[in-house]
């Protein structure tokens, strides 16, 4: 049980770090290209996209169809 919990915890941490890194990078790139007004929205969108994809990839194999 402990190995499963630590594995899930590691996966969760990696997902959050990936979301933060990609969101900050996307926001920074958007701001650097002169569209600073949209930088926060772009960063948030990329982070949300990563979250949705990782959740979908983890629950898709559970479909028995």
Poorly predicted parts:
none
- Please write the string of helix (H) and strand (E) elements: HH
Largest sheet: none
- Characterize the quaternary organization of these chains: single chain
Proportion of residues in helical segments: over 70%
Q: Give me the Rg, rounded.
A: 15 Å
Number of domains: 1
Shape: elongated
Structural class: mainly alpha
Mean pLDDT: 89
Number of strands: 0
Report how far the terminal alpha carbons are from each other. 29 Å
Number of helices: 2
User: How much of the polypeptide forms β-strand, as a percent range?
Assistant: under 5%
What does this entry look like structurally?
The protein is an all-alpha fold. It has one domain. Helices cover 80% and strands 0% of the residues. The model has no long low-confidence stretch (mean pLDDT 89).
Short summary:
By secondary structure, this protein is mainly α.
Structural topology:
Blueprint: H1 2-32, H2 39-59
Helix pairs in contact: 1-2
Features:
mainly alpha
